[in-house]
Request: fold
Amino acid sequence: MTTVDHPWQKDVFDVLKQGDIRQIAFVPDAGHSYTLSAARSDPDMTDVVLTTEEEGVGVVAGAWLGGQRAALLVQSSGVGNCVNMFSLLEACRFPFLALVTMRGEYAEFNPWQSPMGQRTQGALELMGITVHRADRADEVAEIVGAALDSTFLAGERNAVLLSQSLIGRKKWEGK
Reply:
């Protein structure tokens, strides 16, 4: 298992594990690296690598139909790829939990990340998904836990935005 860069990263995995999440669907992302590594090391959890983020909506819905809880882990830029598939959640009333690492905010160096980063919350809300946001490490476990409960106890659709300032500065490493 990888080391924990930030204590909140372990909190995310612990909440998912305690909440009986059995499947994690994702496109690889450094912000989710600890959770992904921990899921791969856990014999009770299946990690599903996606070719594109919208496939994750179907994976999460299929897991629910198969009697398991799942979560979609994406970067804010991937939320835009999912918008059409979010209609499946509304039409079928599937519970849904997404954890979204944000880009296009604090100290962003890549201008391509800014448009979707600035519109992620609005896009999710437009599609009927309740948005929660974690900006500080000490609030991550509570916010992720509350979203998980709302998802699987009340049957709602939720996304937790993990702010770019929480994740830390990304640095351009050009040659």
Summary: The helical segments are 7-18, 33-41, 54-65, 76-82, 86-92, 114-126, 140-154, 164-167. The domain at 7-167 is CATH 3.40.50.970 (Rossmann fold).
